[in-house]
């Protein structure tokens, strides 16, 4: 089994897309999974979900469950499937329920402020 640890993310985290701030949280979580970079999960309540559009894309992780994806709509572009959420995560990672993570890419940034 993959080794996954979830801890409170230290400090305040912000996510930006196309230069606009989508959300800021001091209640974010850090998920560390063996063999993968650390991922910050934001509480959905701290994200401007109006800028996210659910897509039909899903993936399955044997350790976390099924992920639903969202595209981010900014003024200049749409970042396709750039955010994901485990809406019914497996029991071992239940802390990430009602949280959303973002794929860092050109135009999308997740950083501690």
From TrEMBL:
Q: List residues of the DUF427 domain.
A: 14-103
Q: Which Pfam families match?
A: NTP_transf_9
Which InterPro entries does the entry mention? DUF427, DUF427_sf
Q: What protein am I looking at?
A: Guanylate cyclase
């Amino acid at each position: 089994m993959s080794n996954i640890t979830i801890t409170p993310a230290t400090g305040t985290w912000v996510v930006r897309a196309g230069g606009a701030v989508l959300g800021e949280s001091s209640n974010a979580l850090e998920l560390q999974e063996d063999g993968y970079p650390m991922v910050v999960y934001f509480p959905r309540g701290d994200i401007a979900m109006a800028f996210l559009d659910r897509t039909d894309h899903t993936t399955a992780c044997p350790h976390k469950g099924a992920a639903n994806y969202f595209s981010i709509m900014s003024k200049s572009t749409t970042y396709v499937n750039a955010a994901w959420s485990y809406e019914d995560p497996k029991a071992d990672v239940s802390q990430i329920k009602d949280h959303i993570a973002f794929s860092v890419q050109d135009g999308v940034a997740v950083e501690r402020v």
